[in-house]
Design brief:
Number of domains of chain A: 2
Shape of chain A: elongated
Order of helices and strands of chain B: HHHHHHHHHHHH
CATH superfamily of the largest domain in chain A: P-loop containing nucleotide triphosphate hydrolases
Number of strands of chain A: 8
Oligomer: heterodimer
CATH architecture of the largest domain in chain A: 3-Layer(aba) Sandwich
Structural class of chain B: mainly alpha
Helix content of chain B: over 70%
Strand content of chain B: under 5%
CATH class of the largest domain in chain A: Alpha Beta
Number of domains of chain B: 1
Structural class of chain A: alpha+beta
CATH topology of the largest domain in chain A: Rossmann fold
Radius of gyration of chain B: 20 Å
Largest sheet of chain B: none
Amino acid sequence: MKVKDVIKLSADLRKKDCRKEAKELCERLGLDTEKRVEELSFGNRKKVAIVCALQHKPRLCVLDEPTGGLDPLMQREFFTILKERNAEGATIFLSSHILSEIQRNCTRAAIVREGRLIACDSVDSLSKTNAKRIHIEGNADISALKNVRDVQKTDNGISFLFSGDINEFLQFISKFRINDLSISEPDLEEIFMHYYLDGGDR
Amino acid sequence: MTVIRHELKQSRISLIIWTVAIGFLLAVCIFMFPEMKGEMNEVSEVFSSMGSFTQAFGMDKVNFGTLLGFYAVECGNILGLGGAFFASLCAISVLSKEEKERTAEFLLTHPVSRVRVVAEKLISVILQILILNVVVYVTAVSSIALIGEAVPWQEITLMHTAYLILQLELAGICFGVSAFLRRGSIGTGLGIAVMMYFLNIIANLTESAEFLKYITPFGYADGAEIVRNVSLDMNMIAIGILFALIGISAGFIKYCRKDIS
């Protein structure tokens, strides 16, 4: 079967004429509709699935790891399409292991661990824990510092999550001679790890 | 309609090959008849004196020297066996192939109920069998007309009807089996067809095994018997149709509850 036959079959099964939309989606995703499905790579098969799932303009999409196999450019295009659909009123659920993808593209996120929902909130407020990710370049002994988690040695310093009072930290760190210091919001991945490793109690 | 169309499209090459092959073999057989007719009396004697072999193929019941006798045995075997293989192969894979080829996920995530999927797949199998039989029937009748023989309409039509019912029965049984299979369906289909064929041969050979005729559809699709009686054995056909209906019902029930991965 050719790609275009699969797409047509999907549209027929929904009893809809989606030719215009299908053509546009194929062009945007760079999908050759004359190829036979059996010859396609994993990524291209994924594109066929995406076209089949979106061509009839569904109002609700449930997508299970939709970007697997897609190259970064296609991932971006795919999320652009999803955002357009979202702006037109569609609700989109998607599962992903790539948390940066969720952070960039989703408004709400939920974390499921061992089949249980352990957190569900907007991506913004999930990211806003009181913990900060701190990178220190240089020699600093932080063993006396409290409220420290996830200490990682880097090439020329250390990195850790700090959830105490930032003023205390600044006083503490001023005793050392360091080369550089950066304090940032932890990304979703770190929050996810926090939920998974620390038993989920925030 | 979509699933029917899709199924027909997918199996059109196999349908064409089987139809052409069976039609061609039948036509060749019929075209051979005028040449053999003169020598047929001798051939007839040879054929009728091969003991149990003669019996097995029903050659003791017909006169090989007449077109009908010849057609009943030679062509009966071609259409009987060929049609049985086609119908079994066609039906045995129709429900299981989605899982084998991993397309079930695609098909069943669309807004079509399983009942509808099974019904449309069944119709597509029946349509394919009907197409094959109509083409073969027309080919046979025109070949007979072409060699200048009078077409024995009644007998030919009865014979072809019997073979059509035989194919539909086998298809119904295989259809039911198909719902239970996940892979390796083709061997099972061929196995069912061959087993039925040999059951009939055994039934022809030994009297104590004659009850087998009621199990195998080849029992009522016996060209020699049909030519002799100019009628079909309605009891056997009723049993056959019952088998087909059981198969089809099993297919529906199983497929609609099957855990498909």
